[in-house]
Amino acid sequence: MKYVALPAIVLLALLAACSKPAADAAKGDASADVAIVNGVHITRNTFDYYVQGASGKPASEATPEQKAQLLENLIRGELVAADAEKTGIAKQSETQAILQLARLNVLQQAASQAYLKDKKATDEDLKKEYDTQVAALAKTEYHARHILVATEQFAQKLAAQLEKGAKFEELAKKESMDPSKENGGDLGWFTPDRMVPSFSAAVLQLKKGEYTHSPIQTQYGWHIIRLDDTRDLAPPPFDSVKDRLVQIVEAKKFKAYTDELAKTAKIEKKL
Length: 271
Prior knowledge:
Blueprint lengths: L5 H14 L13 E5 L2 E4 H12 L8 H24 L5 H24 L6 H14 L3 E10 L2 H12 L4 H8 L10 E5 L6 H8 L11 E3 L2 E12 L9 H23 L7
Helix pairs in contact: 1-2, 1-4, 2-3, 5-9
């Protein structure tokens, strides 16, 4: 294990430890020192959390060599941090911003975990959220092709060729500037939310086999779109998204908590 510059890895370690507490600290004196660097105490608690975050396992499972190297990282980090304080680096605006954001991240994760400790998502919560998410899902998928060109005039010229019997796929391969040209303009199956609004709106107006006789403009250029097929979209089974639902429900609960904090806070926005 090589020596790693500490600032970034310490932050990552602490963030990881906040979400998965180290077990070792409870086994001994968490306030006992593992090192003292120029009078600064590095406690067992700090070391155990650092090991947990850096290695993904409790300090008790780390080898003596790993523990020695990680302790060396902490010691070197303290030396660098102390020198940064001495030379004024810690007072630079960019450094202050990073430190403030790191503090906010760590405390917010710790506060979230503490707040949600006795407010875990119930089965009723999850089923209600599942119904909400399913209601918001698209009910239909669309299979379409398109020809993308740079100008409206050229797109109109191609539309005229289609009206005279030209094959859509051949025109796409020959004239489209989109990577889908290799497959005759085939975009595969998609839901409307995956496309830019003007493109999706045009697709929704088409029947199977129809194409847009008037070119559609997006930020990418001018499109001629053909709808090949549609199919019903079944929602994912509840059990397959249960873990994600837990995250959504708990995020909403914590947001409600922060909303209450914001209501009673004195906030001045200056942007």
